[in-house]
Amino acid sequence: MMKKIDFRPLGMEDKERVQRYTLGSWRQNCDLSFANLFSWRFYYRTEIAEWGGFLLFRFNACHEQLAYMMPVGSGSLKPVVEAMMDDARAAGAPFLMLGVCAATRAELEAEFPGQFEFQLDRDYFDYIYLRTDLATLRGKKFQPKRNHINRFKATYPHYEYQELTPALVLECLRLENSWCQANDCAENQALQDERRSMTTALQHIDELDIRGGVLRVDGRMVAFTYGAPINADTFDTCVEKADTSIDGAYAMINYEFANHLPDTFTYINREEDLGLEGLRKAKLSYQPEVLLEKYIVTLRV
Fold it and tell me: Is the pLDDT assigned to residue 83 strictly greater than 80?
């Protein structure tokens, strides 16, 4: 008889437990950043468990569907996935995994040949960049980006970049409030959810190992960004907000933050585009090193 998985709600006290698996993993999915997991737990009602040498995640996807992430850990994958399938069956739900990348798809197919359907989930592909590309913008392909940076410097020669600290959080929230008013957050549930996640993360800036930066023009904050590690060499940029009346503010905060991020991080994951045409165009324009494919996985009928 299969041993029951003891899932329980994710809490701040689970940070060390989660990162014991994720920080040493090769996986680069933005979903595995503890800052993301914690700040979005209100939305996904995320639960975790340890089973058979793996860390497991269970959550609620869109339309209240029970879903799982690919387990993180080492050992035999087959029994842990079978246990997850039993868990879904016990809950009376179809088995569903989200955010499964190409490499882990290959593992599943090797262990369960012909048993799963894999559907590409393009809106949730992660955009992963070389930190050095974003920090230097070298080469012909980045000429338009260098032009943006040079124009910003010429227009605002006395701009200032600062490391994000808890003392700056209220100012960040005021800027985000202005951004929300300009972007009709009140009419957009997705933006309201993002706002709640962002506020939670900023309120726990130290506990979540959040690193970020702010940009000032004439002393006024015009942009901020922050993120947290996914693993030892990949950093997740969770949020980037700017005053759109300041031309080049987004390009400049991205550039400065990449320059101030420790060089222990080889990669920067700037997350997905959610199918938004403008966001997709902007993310592609920075020439990702990896476009991390993700799949929706279900049992073949």
Answer: yes
The per-residue pLDDT for range 175-199, each reduced to its tens digit, is 999 999 888 888 889 889 999 999 9
**The token pair that represents 158 in the structure block:** 């006395």
Inform me whether the pLDDT recorded for 2 exceeds 70.
Answer: no
Q: Are 185 and 191 in contact (CB under 8 A)?
A: yes
pLDDT exceeds 90 at position 301: no
Q: Beta partners for 141?
A: none
Which amino acid belongs to residue 27? R
Q: Identify the CA nearest to 233 among candidates 269, 263, 260, 265.
A: 265
Mean pLDDT of the chain: 95
Query: 286 in helix, strand or coil?
Result: coil
Task: Return d(Cα 117, Cα 297) in angstroms, integer.
Answer: 6
Cα–Cα–Cα angle for 198, 266, 25, nearest 5°? 75
Whether 216 contacts 222, CB under 8 Å: yes
Q: Which tokens sit at 206?
A: 């130290």
pLDDT-derived band at 64 (thresholds 50, 70, 90) equals: confident
Of the candidates 53, 45, 52, 44, the residue with the CA atom closest to the CA atom of residue 21? 53
Structure tokens at 34: 């503890």
Rounded distance, CA 218 to CA 34, Å? 35
